[in-house]
Amino acid sequence: TRLVPVASPAFMAEFGWDETWVGYLASANIVGALLVLFTCTPLLLRIGGMRTLQFVLLLGAASIMLLYVPSLAIALFACALMGFSNGIANPAGSEALQRFTADARRTVGFSIKQAGIPLGGVIAGLAVPPLVEAFGWRTALAAAAVAIAAVTQGTNGSVAIVEKNLDECTLCDLCINAAPKGSIRIIKLYE
Asked: Which pTM was predicted?
């Protein structure tokens, strides 16, 4: 959500768009985030918080690349997708933390998550303008998209379910049985 206002002056100038369109792009982002309220729960229930996070991070990375197209309609659509991606990440992250974090560490986990959201905005606000200045807006957006996509690989496409939480999740048996062999492993928190 912070990427567009920070990088948009460069691509909007190149495309010849009026600078007031940055407000419409930011608004499209918010509309996308609001649409999540109507679509989030079925996706979370169907594939779980961790898979939802992986999906929306990749969706966000792909939507950034749509900004390469010199079309206001596509830019508005891309910003709405980014908003959708950002809006669903919060409940998906909360669900994943609730399920996969030990009780004793859950408060710290949620605190880090909540502090990380504005910190990510600060990092984008500080990192993107120098990247745009040094390498151009296309490279800066590509770097952001690659960084976002790389985060999804942190789990190597697999999810570890904490054995202690198996009884808390009604979908665990369904997930374990439906997932490709070896993609979900059960670990013990305590011996």
From this structure: 0.75
